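User: quick one
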Amino acid sequence: MRTYNEYRSMAEEALIPALSSLGQIPSPLLEAMCYSLQGGGKRIRPVLLLAACEMAGGNAEDALPFACALEMVHTYSLIHDDLPAMDNDDLRRGQPTNHKVYGESIAILAGDGLLNAAMEVMAAAAVKSGRPEGIRAAETIMRHAGVTGMIAGQTADITSEGKTPREDTVRYIHEHKTSDLLEAAVEAGLILGGASEEQVAAGHEYALHTGLAFQMTDDLLDVTGSAAELGKNPGKDADQNKMTWVALRGAEGTAEDACREAELALNALRKLPWDTEFFKAFTESLPGRKK
Amino acid sequence: MRTYNEYRSMAEEALIPALSSLGQIPSPLLEAMCYSLQGGGKRIRPVLLLAACEMAGGNAEDALPFACALEMVHTYSLIHDDLPAMDNDDLRRGQPTNHKVYGESIAILAGDGLLNAAMEVMAAAAVKSGRPEGIRAAETIMRHAGVTGMIAGQTADITSEGKTPREDTVRYIHEHKTSDLLEAAVEAGLILGGASEEQVAAGHEYALHTGLAFQMTDDLLDVTGSAAELGKNPGKDADQNKMTWVALRGAEGTAEDACREAELALNALRKLPWDTEFFKAFTESLPGRKK
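Assistant: Done. Structure below.
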């Protein structure tokens, strides 16, 4: 196993080459895609995918196309989420959002392009490897990203705006908007590493609860953080009457719930036969974000 | 081989079940996706995919998930293409466009959802079949739909608006906006049917030229047709200063070029060892559209 920053560098160095491997992409589409792909961020999803693959005894290099694809999926969702018709954000990670730089039509196409590119990169890797794990990992990632996963969460997030917070709805939004891509990362990494179905199920449980803790602390930051800390405008959730965990349980209750979810994530790790310190450390770093 | 309408019915009956097979899709996302999927149209792409598979000796039932996926890709591209930030169309196939019925944010998510669903359906079918042809067909479809294919064509279409028509640019737009998904249909169908690389290459050539003839006659219809004939507002291309073949070559020149492209398509069919009457008839039906 390597360090978080080693996995992060691996993924960041592979992102643009993965895009270039697809062929000649016209301007300004390529620039718009690269602008958001290179927008930084913690690269949590590709890092967790690579780490899960190595933890299960696989080769991180073989998992790189899937790690890049997952970051492309995450990036496309941010571009479309920021559009005027969606959350209408001007700032993302301290930079102007994609449509502010390239215009709305190119931002829509850049998002479509990154989602499609993710699938192309995974399909090409699966064809090349010839191993059934490749297509299974691709299927897992697309399912978690799709209309019963992340996109279902985006839909619930939008349709619940301005409504009275309900626990089942907020949990549904968090599970799908946030946990689903973390589940995709851990499950796909474990599949590529050759893990058993039971081990993949434990990885799913870990990622589900870590995602909930992650989103709860993110909701907290939105009410307590500054634009400098967040790299985006704080208070947006309240301004847009988003149905957040804080709106439901208050700041204190949300902090408590985040710690409880983190505990559930750590319990799931105990079902795995490997050294899970990497994932334990990742989850324990989250509640600290609220300080 | 079956008739065009038999393949069309096969595909239309399988579309919604293919979507439902993915699981619980929340409202109004499911309704918005189904609204555009059931918007009719000639179902050219799934029909060509199923016919190519059977022509090559394959089983059309096994190719159905890929035919449905291709129609989902085509449908998502229409939803996003019609958005206010793109072509801003109110009417599609005689019906209000998706964003006019469900609003812009749900229309964006419905498009994203259909593209993602297409990949999920193909990946699930490839995992189930266990045959390498499945993932190869999926890779072919995603490549033609992607940032070096259809999305590249959409980008060129938007960035060339209002510019003086150039033959290389108009051809690039037509090849990618229109031919690419027809190439995806014929190539993926042939791959699933077990065709050789040379046969897939001939299928590519057929679909490329048929797509150009198709788009040229479509450009003609936009200047000569009525809203009733088109199911959309005529004259939009001119209103938006689109770089069309008619703007480049005039109505007469475009009609001649469409016939020439159709001839090139028929020549490509002669390289195939099977009865290609189905594809010959399809291409010959196109120039008639301008009457």
